[in-house]
Task: structure prediction
Amino acid sequence: MKISGSCLCGVVRFAVEAPYPYPYLLCYCSICRKVAGGGGYTINLGALTESLEVDGEEHLSVYHLGGSETNNEARDIAGRRFCSKCGTHLWNYDPRWPELVHPFASVIDTDLPVPPERTHMMLAFKANWVPLAVGPNDKTFDEYPDESLATWHARLGLAES
Ligand SMILES: [Zn+2]
Result:
């Protein structure tokens, strides 16, 4: 489905085709919590890079994780795009998987479908004050989940044909 999003001040707006639009994947890592996760986690969607249309691109900034030599190179090149005027974080892009961008569900203005179950990831890094609300069919992982965005949507019959 086509989804659109915007930053708080509205100078950056985007639209993108999202084959994986269900906001089911909650990431509790400290990076996600700090950039866009006031409740303790962010939710990343899966959308097609080649379909991304951006208004106000000149206002975008990118944040790369720290460049110390102990970090692996791939972590360093992944970047989070945010509005340089209002600071809203908009999407994550990792050139290791160039076909996908990952908009934060929190900046999407389109009504998103309600996920029948959710996946909670990076729980090893969850802040202690964040409650873990696990539904009956939810899955939990200390680090990365065992399903990709595509696999999750396919398993539940929610993949677009
Ligand atoms: Zn803005």
User: Anything to note?
Assistant: Residues 7-9, 11-12, 83, 85-86, 88 surround zinc ion (CB under 6 Å). Confidence is low (pLDDT under 50) at residues 67-76.
